[in-house]
Amino acid sequence: MFRTLALASLLTALSVPLLAQTPCDLEITLSCATGTCKSVTKNIGANACAGEYIFGFYSESPAAKFTNFSNSLGATECFDSSTFPGEQNSFALCVATTTLAAGASFSTSTQVTGLPPASANNFFVALTLVIDPVTEDELAFVYAFDTPDQVTCTPRANVPSLTLSGVPYSVSWTPVSDSTATYLVDESTTPDFSANVSTKPASGTSLQFLHTVGTTTTYYYRVRAVSCNGSPGANSAPVSIVVQSAPPQTSRGADAPVPLGTTTPVNIPLTLTIKSSGKRALADTTFAATTDKPYLT
Questions:
Q1: Closest Cα to residue 64, out of 103, 31, 113, 106?
Q2: C-alpha of 257 from chain center
């Protein structure tokens, strides 16, 4: 019953909006490498945070498995999704009633297997929920996302979902288990790679592309290792990016979505509506344009 209540409290916290202010001020970080994930929860507030802590890892993938699950709090009341037959999601959680002093932290780690290695949208999160054991009020709820890298011969590709014509972007992918592997990147304008296919070699784990288009076009990419542990590697799941021919117009003007880290200048058309009165010609109207941001000219 206790575990069921703990899970219910966690799922409730996952499904409702968080309050702007909580009695405890916590932060959480998550890092994953070669299937091993570690989270660190720290009390960044000025006061101690005392309550019932529910913490661990959660995934939307029912196939995910968590092994070597450990924590530095010494909590022994731990359980996973196998405890709940029929549960559609995967998780590994611990419960402990404790106090985290100001500036103190604790860590949780696990080995993750069973996640789809080619899924760019796989939901995986580390979390810490703190509940007042008397009132059952939520004192804090923090979480962090990451995608554990599965060590396989199939890379997982990634590309920004949207960019503008003439703005460069990068296709990146996770390395395969063979550290000497080189890669081939296929590009196409169809999701089944049946048209306009081009292939580029790469020795690292990213490759830059640039397209100048007259009409908005979707480009698809897949990546494979030329050789991984002596055999050709399998293609990654395809990923895609929409290259827009012009910034879309909205009620507030033009939006210019570009990949994070872009340094190429982007031109955004602005429309001025000038109302004239009487016989004054529009050609006689003058105006000045300024900006309040240093990255705009």
A1: 113
A2: 17
Pull the structure tokens for residue 21. 């202010």
Instruction: Determine phi and psi for 229, rounding to 5 degrees.
Output: 55, 40
Task: Identify the CA nearest to 268 among candidates 252, 248, 292, 294.
Answer: 248
What DSSP string runs through 170-203? EEEE---S-TT--EEEEEESSTTS-SS-EEEEES
Question: Of 28, 61, 6, 7, whose CA–CA distance to 127 is shortest?
Answer: 28
The confidence score (pLDDT) of residue 182 equals 95
Rounded to an integer, what distance in angstroms lies between the CA atom of residue 66 and that of residue 119? Answer: 18
Q: How far apart are CA 185 and CA 239, in angstroms?
A: 11
What ranges in the chain are assigned the alpha helix state H? 2-15
pLDDT in tens, 144-175: 887 666 567 889 898 988 899 988 999 999 88
Q: Residue 262: what residue type?
A: T
Structure tokens at 250: 């909205």
Please answer whether residues 167 and 206 qualify as being in contact, where contact means their C-beta atoms are separated by less than 8 angstroms.
no
The values of phi and psi at residue 10, to 5°, are: -65, -50
158, 238 in Cβ contact below 8 A? Answer: no
CA separation for the pair 78, 95 (Å, rounded): 6
Q: Are 233 and 193 in contact (CB under 8 A)?
A: no
Least confident piece of the model among 33-47, 74-88, 156-170, 202-216: 74-88
Contact 247, 268 (CB under 8 A): yes
